[in-house]
Amino acid sequence: MFEKPAPPDPKRRVWPKVSVLIPARNERKRLTPCLKTLLAQDYPHWEVLVLDDRSTDRTFALAASFAKKDRRLRVLRGKPLPPGWLGKPWACAQLAQAAKGEWLFFTDADTWHGPQMLKRTVQMAQAKGADALTLLTRQVTKSWMESLVIPVMAFHLLAFFPAKLSLRPKSFFNRFAGVSGQFIFIQRAVYRAFGGHATVKDEIVEDLNFGKRLAQGGYRLVYGDGSDFSFCRMYTNAGEVWEGFSKNFYAAVGFSLPAVLFTLAVLIGLGVLPFLALFLAWGSPLGWGALTLCLALGAMRLAQALHHGLSRWSVPLHPVGCLLFAAIGVNSILWRLTGRGHWKGRKLTVR
Q1: How would you class 283 by CB atoms within 10 Å of its CB: exposed for 0-12, middle for 13-18, buried for 19 or more?
Q2: What is the pLDDT of residues 57-97, one digit of tens each?
Q3: Are 33 and 60 within 8 A, CB to CB?
Q4: What pTM, to 2 d.p., does this model score?
Q5: Pairing of strands 18-24, 346-347
Q6: Inter-residue contact 302 to 312 (CB < 8 Å)
Q7: Is the dihedral of CA 231, 154, 261, 264 positive or negative?
Q8: Residue 49 and residue 19: Cα distance in Å, rounded?
Q9: Which CATH number fits the domain 18-137+180-236, given the four candidates 3.90.550.10, 3.40.50.300, 3.30.230.80, 3.40.630.40?
Q10: How far is Cα 186 from Cα 122, in angstroms, rounded to an integer?
Q11: Is 230:137 a contact under the CB 8 Å cutoff?
């Protein structure tokens, strides 16, 4: 389990300036809780910047309405996408250029945060001597597809991600380091020194590659658990889950066919076949072995659900979630091979 940031020290009086940076494309339906909770932070020295990434809805107008009521919020209009860049890295790069804070906090428009989030985050980052800090957020799921697929994704990430090994200097496992795009907290000087989002300008999963560049560059990256004060609802319906993870699945393993096939084999081999064997070989030694594995998986899934606030009813439906996630993985491969990949009205290829 990752460490949770401690409550703020009530005696502390000096806090560095923080720039909260939100890239937003077609986020009119999601942005309000994010801005309300950020503007309600119990923090003395900060600013919030929203960049409207050339939205086709009323994202800019919504953000501007908040800015009229609170001078700590600035709204920027995104510039046209230059050659060689994908949308989100370009939006983040523009935000960083406009920021004035000593620390930069990149977060997504579909997140919301408790009032002590900034104090607890700053305190942990400085106590750990971090160049950058990334925290897990609590994943909120409501629709059936969210509740089945997102816990499966989180389970495999936490179960197989070599977190400590990935952060060791010059380690083979540096290639597996990453950060969560929902919560990137980084010193402005460090961001500029290693090149910031320009180093991941053409990456679909820019956050994972951003963290890898930091770790491989020798910077001190720290992982933590912010699930008790930062929340995210990534998608709101089955269509968004299907498209969102289709965008990310194949890209997350670097478009490596052996790696994606191995990932699919793990999903099916550990998440589906033991439950199938439980019914087909009940009463035999194979069936008892399958039962043991199923119970172990169920116990781990339940512990994760309780700790991270994930869907509990999805635990007994784990094999269904794995099948759905595997189907999304296959679609992700097809998107790449056929060039049909898209997200929020943009193709997933650079110009």
Answers
A1: exposed
A2: 999 999 999 999 999 999 999 999 999 999 999 999 999 99
A3: no
A4: 0.93
A5: unpaired
A6: yes
A7: negative
A8: 7
A9: 3.90.550.10
A10: 10
A11: yes
